[in-house]
Each structure stands twice: as C-alpha cells, then as structure tokens.
C-alpha cells in the first residue's frame, strides 16, 4: 500500500514510517522544512513538500496515495484555537479527497475529557465537536467520513508516548525539574497518565491501517495509568533532584502550560483495540524508560 503520512518527521511519524516500510508498504511523508525533508528521506520515505496551511498540497498527497495516516498538528499553545481550526480544515480536505474510495484515513487524537471516575474506553465518544473545539473536533469530523466511503479510524494516543528521543510531556517535566532543582507533582499525585512505548504505538498504527474497519476508535495505551507522583519521583531520581508537591495554583505559576495537563486524571483502557487488531504491547514501561536515563532534562 502507498501511504501518505503527515507529521512524518515527528516523534510518532518517524517511528510509524519505519514500521510501515518494514511491513512492506511504500511511504510518502509530508515535509514543511528542508530539515524535515532530510529526516523523512533518511527514514526511507519519499518526500512531499508542503504544510498544514497548504490544502492543495494536502489534497495532492492524499489523492496520490492508497491511504493516509494524519499525525500532524500545530502544537502552538499560544494559538491553540487557530491550530484547531487548521486541524479541521486538513481533516475535511483529506476526507473529501478520499470520499467514495474506501481508502483508509487514520487521524491522530487524544484521551482528554472522555470519561470521569473510570477508565476511558474506545466506546466513549469524543465530546469535541466543531472547528472551535479541542483539536478542531477532528476526530468526530474524520469518523463522519465513514458514511461517505472512507475507512476512517481515530487513533487516540496516550498522554505519554515514551522512549529514547521523546520530546513530549515527560521531557518537558524533566526540563522543568532540572531548571527548578525539584521534580514536582500536583496535589497528592494520585492522578494518572496512560502511557505506551513508541514502538508499540508505531506497530498499532500499521495494524490499524491494515485491519481496522471504518468508524473504528482505537486506544494507543499500554499502561492504563501511571500515577503522576510516581512519574515525578522517577524523574527526580534519574536527574538527581528532590521531589515536591505543588498545589494547583502554585503549579500553574511554577510549571506553566503543562500544569493543567499534569493535573489531569485520565486512566484509559485498550482492551477493544488489542482484541480487534491482535495488538500486544511489549515495549518498556514509562517508569523503566525514565530510570534508563532517557529523560535527562538537558
């Protein structure tokens, strides 16, 4: 299968390209900059120049492919609403291009706000609808194309997709811990983050491309929930700084934008995904990766 991948030079995109090529697929990756193009080419994929604001380029990439894995998103927390509207425009363009073809469209999503007081499951609908909602309501928009002849699939990734080279949430917490001289958690630290190793996520993405029926919702979750206190303690131990608790107000002042994410309690299950795809996560746990020194906070 010839697969068009957006976010191809990113953390999940790069690993997904490697897994796609290993499975015998042909890959073309969207690249916004020369550096991104070099990373895509080095991974063994063809380069498609363009960005999320260039809908003609997005349309051309999808039109030439047998399927699309859309992983890109503008992670600009100072212009998050605008980023959401862009996300909606891109998904609408991809879905319209693939309509009536039964080609797969896999769209990255998240696990925030799905359930309260229990682990979120694949049966929980996303509450985010419309261009002005979180991530532009792109999950619901993508799934709506299942009724228009698109094999659309929602990929809900864990808060921490971890491993050597991760520059996401945990890496940010590590940088803050080194800068502040203490690794922090919020309140009693009993809230949990779901987690999965990058290799397991890449393998799930390929299985989803090959197997998932139209309208599927999948959870990229290996660990249902890792306590934020344990994450902070592991980071403190790995970096060599003490661990401390912050109340919510002080956490906002000390940790900035990541405080509201680290305060979340978002246990999430993946039993349906494992059964549907025959997916068995086998990578290291989040705490194992932290203790292995993958998050130095430099």
Quick description:
The protein is built from twelve helices and twelve strands.
Name the descriptors:
aldehyde dehydrogenase (NAD+) activity; Epimerase_deHydtase; Rossmann fold; NAD(P)-dependent_oxidoreduct; three-stranded mixed β-sheet; 12 strands; NAD(P)-bd_dom_sf; UDP-galactose 4-epimerase, domain 1; alpha/beta; 20% strand; 298 residues
SSE diagram, text form:
Layout: E1 2-6, H1 11-22, E2 26-31, H2 34-42, E3 46-49, H3 55-63, E4 67-70, H4 80-98, E5 104-109, H5 138-144, E6 151-157, E7 160-162, H6 169-180, E8 183-186, E9 192-197, H7 198-211, E10 216-220, E11 223-227, H8 228-239, E12 243-246, H9 248-255, H10 258-262, H11 271-277, H12 286-291
Parallel strand pairs: 1-2, 1-4, 2-3, 4-5, 5-6, 6-10, 7-9, 8-12
Antiparallel strand pairs: 9-11
Protein name: 3-beta hydroxysteroid dehydrogenase
Organism: Luteipulveratus halotolerans
Domain NAD-dependent epimerase/dehydratase: 3-84
Structural class: alpha/beta
Average pLDDT, all residues: 94
Q: Which strands sit side by side, in order, in the main sheet? A: 3-2-1-4-5-6-10
The biggest sheet, with number of strands, parallel, antiparallel or mixed sense and barrel status, is: 7 strands, parallel
What share of residues are in beta strands?
Answer: 15-25%
CATH topology of the largest domain: Rossmann fold
CATH architecture type of the largest domain: 3-Layer(aba) Sandwich
Q: How many beta strands in the DSSP annotation? A: 12
- The general outline is globular
Element order: H for helix, E for strand: EHEHEHEHEHEEHEEHEEHEHHHH
Q: What is the CATH homologous superfamily assignment of the largest domain?
A: NAD(P)-binding Rossmann-like Domain
CATH C-level label of the largest domain: Alpha Beta
| Helix residue percentage | 40-55%
Poorly predicted sequence stretches spanning 5 or more consecutive residues: none
End-to-end CA span? 40 Å
Rounded to an integer in angstroms, the radius of gyration calculated over CA atoms is 19 Å
Number of helices: 12
Please give the domain count. 2
């Amino acid at each position: 299968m010839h697969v068009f991948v957006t976010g191809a030079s990113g953390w999940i995109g790069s690993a997904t390209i490697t897994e796609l090529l290993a499975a015998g697929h042909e890959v073309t990756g969207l690249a916004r900059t020369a550096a991104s193009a070099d990373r895509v080419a080095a991974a063994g994929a063809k380069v498609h120049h363009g960005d999320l604001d260039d809908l003609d380029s997005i349309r051309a990439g999808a039109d030439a492919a047998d399927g699309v894995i859309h992983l890109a998103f503008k992670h600009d927390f100072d212009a998050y609403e605008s980023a959401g509207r862009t996300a909606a425009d891109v998904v609408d363009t991809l879905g319209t291009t693939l309509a009536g073809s039964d080609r797969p469209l896999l769209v990255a999503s998240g696990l925030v706000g799905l359930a309260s007081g229990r682990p979120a499951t694949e049966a929980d609908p996303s509450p985010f609808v419309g261009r002005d909602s979180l991530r532009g309501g792109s999950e619901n928009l993508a799934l709506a194309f299942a009724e228009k002849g698109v094999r659309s699939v929602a990929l809900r990734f864990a808060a921490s997709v971890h491993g050597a080279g991760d520059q996401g949430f945990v890496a940010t917490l590590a940088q803050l811990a080194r800068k502040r001289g203490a690794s922090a958690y919020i309140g009693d630290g009993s809230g949990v983050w779901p987690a999965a190793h990058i290799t397991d996520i890449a393998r799930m993405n390929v299985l989803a491309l090959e197997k998932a029926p139209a309208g599927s919702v999948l959870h990229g979750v290996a660990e249902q929930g890792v306590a934020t206190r344990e994450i902070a303690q592991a980071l403190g131990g790995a970096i060599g700084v003490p661990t401390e608790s912050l109340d919510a107000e002080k956490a906002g002042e000390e940790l900035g934008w990541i405080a509201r994410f680290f305060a979340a309690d978002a246990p999430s299950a993946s039993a349906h995904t494992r059964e549907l795809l025959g997916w068995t996560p086998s990578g290291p746990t989040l705490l194992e990766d932290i203790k292995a020194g993958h998050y130095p906070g430099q």
